[in-house]
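Run Amidohydrolase through structure prediction, thanks.
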Amino acid sequence: MRVPHNTVQAGPSHGDEEERSVTGTTTTTCFGIRSDLLIPGRGQPIKNGAVVVEDATIEWVGDFSNRPANTHARAMGLPRPLRGHGLAFSILNDSSSYLPGAPALAGAVTVADLRRTLDAGFTSVRELMGFPCFLNPTYLPLGTSAWRVLTPDITTKYAGYLWPGIRDGYLAALSITGGHGDAHELPLCAVKQFGEAGGAPYLCDGVDECIKAVRTMVRRGARCIKVCSSGGVLSLNDDPEDRQFSDDELKAIVDETERSGRAVAAHAIGKAGIMAALRAGIKSIEHGCYLDEEVAALMKEKGAILIATRHIQESLLLDPSGFPEPVIKKIKKIVPLTRKNYDLAIQQGVKIALGTDTWNSNPEHRVAHGKNATELTYAVQAGLTPLQAIEAMTATAPEVLGKQAPKSGQLKAGYDADLIGVAGNPLDDLVFLTDPTNVTHVWKGGKSYKSPA
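Sure, done. The structure for Amidohydrolase is below.
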């Protein structure tokens, strides 16, 4: 399906400029967008759809022929809708990333990461270890204390320092000493001091330290708390099947997080770590590689969401160069398991949100920022329809933030005016979303950041 390519203006009959209503010192910007096919994020696509935006908010969505009379929208149509690894630092626990000045270098590299992510059509992301990204380039001062954009769960907004340098605080993954978040090859005192100074990760052991860690993250501005409840693949000295944090520690983290209206996300690969996270009340399971029928049943009972992160796993299996042999062995073991268990999760009706664990700042790398939408292809391979996969990437993703979820991810009245236009119908061919060159238009908060020259 071919999609038209001109913008729609609301207001002046000549259509050359947006309508601006001025009352005192207040200026209101209103414009309309029309599309051959409008995909709202949740619900059925709308043929000949239209969206009316006022300032940073969506005011109306529906069939263009039923648009509100007072919009005067004249249709011309429109296409529808971070640590610096790989460049600033090496790919695995580069000790130089713990040195003074490293955050400034990472921040400089990350500006380009954010731009590529935005240009690929991702207006909001959830960042789970380093800093948040509210993807508006005007909020990205060069050299800010930023660590990395994982862009994992692709359409949520907040997480912890690039948000007001972007908005108030580092977010570090909480890890036990010697666990997945620890830098095993560095002196323990250096890792702890770095975490206390604002870096990632943050080590905590015992209930009291776990409570203090949550309060520290909240003080830094975190809107979500990440905890490593299992070992990991890229950490050297632990195993993905290892259980990390006790039941009491996890429950203390969840209870303290929920007291401030926040949600907890769990890095959880092995079954023991997944089940422990679910028992504690964690609603966001990242990776979930050892998911089986028992895990699926408990996830449905608890209303938990799976973020399978297949893109990074498949990419590292194709090219594990640069990693030590123990890590490569874990990659080769995990990926075939995840393929089967992702299929099972979808068959069993587990709720899915798409996330990538994107981490590389080298634009040529397979998991570079801006290639996030590749995750769609794995969701469809596992059994979702293209429309279901798009919903998992848009409408479902903000739900992992619970009460802190922004009004993002849906074209719906009252929601943020974050929209993209693409060069064809992604329900027919996902390449119109997975290839950033096919993303022709991007609006963030009602402001245009990408359009044809």
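The CA atoms of residues 41 and 410 lie 5 Å apart.
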